[in-house]
Amino acid sequence: MVWSRVLAVVAALGTSLACGADDGGSSPTPSPSASPSAPTAADVIARVPVGGEPIGIAEGFGSLWVVASEYESGGHPSVARIDPEASEVAATIRVGAVPLEVTTGFGSVWVSNSEDDTVSRIDPSTNEVVSTVDVCAAPEGLAADRRWLWVVCEDAGAVVPVDPSTDRAGEEIPVGLEPRFVTVAFGSVWVSNYLDATVSRIDPATGKVVAEIETAFGPQVMAATAESLWVSCLDADTVQAIDPATEEIGSSIRTEALPDGLVVERGAVWVATELGPTLQRIDPASGAVSGTWVVAEQGAINADQLLVAAADGFWFPLLDSAEVVEVAFPEVA
Questions:
Q1: N or C: which end of the chain has fewer CB within 10 A?
Q2: Does residue 3 sit within a domain?
Q3: Do residues 116 and 97 lie in contact, with contact meaning Cβ atoms separated by under 8 Å?
Q4: ω into residue 277 within 30 of 0, thus cis?
Q5: Exposure on the CB side of residue 7, measured as CA atoms within 13 A
Q6: pLDDT at 52
């Protein structure tokens, strides 16, 4: 199986440095959008130890939910429920083998367990796993729409819909090579295919792929503004905007240090980089990087770097230090 989220990324780092100026496929050449000033230190306002190699993170039900994979340490994989106001762990919930991602929907918290090909369903009112759903090989990214929980399976090269009324998976929908993440936006389901540098667009009504959009190398996390679907392209040091009306790349923005997690917040697109991590702000109107803040100095970590916005700032799982940190929303001139 492909443990791309939890194995060392030395080879990927070399690839990204070698092809950072190459945009992959037919997408536009990335614009030189360097930060307007030197990076500054982020204002860390909370640190919450969670242990267990924290990776995935989501916000919901007044809490933060952080996946502890325990892949390298051989401990007990779990999800930590964090009270963002108190900045402390309120509950720890055991899940399946090598969990990676977490999302919320249908009154539940859902966790992808990559080693045992399942998804755990957690009831936030009891902090207990109430169902374990068999899906496909190496589940990773998760997203919910009004009807389905969509699960990306990296080794299967597919996405499957899970019916929350029965906790059963439907038929696999083939997508690209080594799919990673999924999001729901503009009436469609979008899947990032890391290995073949594409994003698949799926019509949720028919379960069919209706478009394959070429991106820069290594598409990962996606986030939507009102006008565009943004995708972080890890191996090209680039963040790109897809126009859902034309299904073409509208903007291609050079960032720094392997862009990974994306959040749309306060009128901007915010990027968590895999080195550090650092936090970068992109102005979607101008297509410029308008600030860089250093969150930590982990170096090349062994998993994708994600973030969420909640309470008073952005929250980052830090795998090396086994904690989640909150940084204040940066002041931008």
A1: C
A2: no
A3: yes
A4: yes
A5: 7
A6: 83
Residues 6+ apart with CB under 8 A from 73: 52, 53
- Block residue for tokens 């309120």: 90
Overall domain count for the chain: 1
Domain of 250, CATH number, reads: 2.130.10.10
Helices and strands counted in the chain (H then E): 1, 30
pLDDT computed for residue 11 by the predictor? 36
Cα three-residue angle 307-313-318, rounded to 5 degrees: 40
What is the residue type of 58? Answer: A
Q: What is the pLDDT of residue 22?
A: 40
User: How far apart (Å, rounded) are the C-alpha atoms in residues 198 and 218?
Assistant: 8
Give the domain range for residue 83. Answer: 10-328
Asked if residue 4 belongs to a domain, the reply is: no
Angstrom CA distances, 82 to 42, 137, 187, stand at 21, 29, 31
pLDDT tens-digit series, residues 99-139: 999 999 999 999 999 999 999 999 999 999 999 999 999 99
pLDDT value of position 25: 43
Do the domain assignments include residue 5? no
Q: Are 24 and 237 in contact (CB under 8 A)?
A: no
Structure confidence by residue, pLDDT tens digits, 189-243: 999 999 999 999 999 999 999 999 999 999 999 999 999 999 999 999 999 999 9
Residue 278 lies in a domain: yes
User: Can you tell me the distance from the alpha carbon of 203 to that of 327, in angstroms, rounded to the nearest whole number?
Assistant: 37
Q: What is the pLDDT of residue 7?
A: 39
Highest mean pLDDT among 38-52, 149-163, 264-278: 149-163
Q: Which long-range contacts (CB under 8 A, 24 or more apart) does 202-210 make?
A: 202/159, 202/173, 202/175, 204/145, 204/147, 204/148, 204/150, 204/161, 207/161, 207/170, 207/171, 207/173, 208/173, 209/173, 209/174, 209/175
DSSP state of 10: H
pTM value is 0.89
CB 180 within 8 A of CB 152: yes
